Amino acid sequence: MKRFFKFFFIGLVVVGIIGTFIFLWQKSQPKLKVYEIVTVSTGTIQKKTVATGKVEPRNEILIKPQLSGIISEIYKEAGDQVKAGDVIARIKLIPDMVSLNAAEARVVRAQLVFDQTTRNFERDKQLFAEKVISREEFEKSKLQFDNDKAELKTAQDNLSLTRDGIASDKTQASNTLVRSTINGTILDIPVKVGNSVIQSNNFNDGTTIAAVANMNDMLFVGKLDETEVGRVNTDMPMEITIGAIPGKRLNAKLEYIAPKGTDSGGAIMFDMKAAVTVTGDVFIRAGYSANAEIIFNRAENVITIPESCVSFSGDTAFVHTLLTEEPQSFEKKQVVTGLSDGISIEIKKGLKKGDKIRGAEVMDKKPANS
């Protein structure tokens, strides 16, 4: 029995030694590296940067009242399209009592004078017909009659304006009607019926009745980092993407770069503005957040490959072109590179469309004879 266990343990040791040698031998065998094969193609390379901001109308006009009072009616609401001259709201005038009393007194005086002048004019008219008075005297009487009649009309209009804000013969041009001054879309009406409003003057900005803007003339307003601002200039093309409108890209052109930067969390940022081309199939709301891709350089219909396929040695670039597929073998070849966007790179010389080159390693494989 002891002899059996002795041979058993010796056998285990021998098997372990043999297994160890086999494992080490397998580890020492060379392995084949298998690479992805990339086919050279043509495409467009763009060098660009991204700025964040929002889209807003170029001009947002605040409509102010021409007199103080109380909102009696509102005819429009936010989102409505208006034309210049369209009535947005009506104001009920709350007259000043001192001014109202003075206007009423002026009408009474003008009426008394006009009544007396009318009697004189009718009498002189009769006398002139009977040739009792001269034409000169009659014309003086008529002139006085016309003047007093005009003064009465002026006093009555002044009373109407003071009391109601409307002249009797100018209701269409009344200051009580708040009208849009431009064609566009109403963005906001911050007042309600019954609100008191103050007219705009040299001492007061006045109450905003409505904000109106042309939504077809939009700007991208954003900020650009100081590391990028030196590479951009006005009239550069841009592409605008809006988070609320996925899959839609709008063209834009850079119009303005601030000459002075501002500190934003330790980074110096420069304000920028770009004119956005709004197409008819998209509706943009003011204030949408957006990103702008500013294109520094573009190369179209050029030979492109993944930049990861290129090896660099100093100022020289190389790729590995495919010689045989099974087993894989490659030849190192020098190329001349061009524009890069960080993912793809332009090849100016050394490759043509349809060539096959070595890409990323995909797996390890032992030789077939192992």
Describe this structure in words.
25% of the residues lie in helices and 42% in strands. The chain folds into 3 domains: 32-47 and 300-365, conserved putative lor/sdh protein from methanococcus maripaludis s2 fold (Beta Barrel); 49-57 and 215-297, Beta Barrel (Elongation Factor Tu (Ef-tu), domain 3), CATH 2.40.30.170; 63-212, no CATH class. It is an alpha+beta fold and 370 residues long. Helix 2 (97-129) runs antiparallel to helix 3. Mean pLDDT is 83; it is low at 365-370. A 6-stranded antiparallel β-barrel has the order 2-11-15-13-12-16. Strands 3-10-8-5 form a 4-stranded antiparallel β-sheet, with no helix packed on it. A 4-stranded antiparallel β-sheet has the order 7-6-4-9. The chain contains 4 helices and 21 strands. The two termini are 42 Å apart.
Taken together, the total number of domains comes to 3
Question: Strand count, sense and closure of the main sheet?
Answer: 6 strands, antiparallel, barrel
**Net shape:** elongated
- Mean pLDDT reading: 83
Strand proportion, as a percent range, falls in: 35-45%
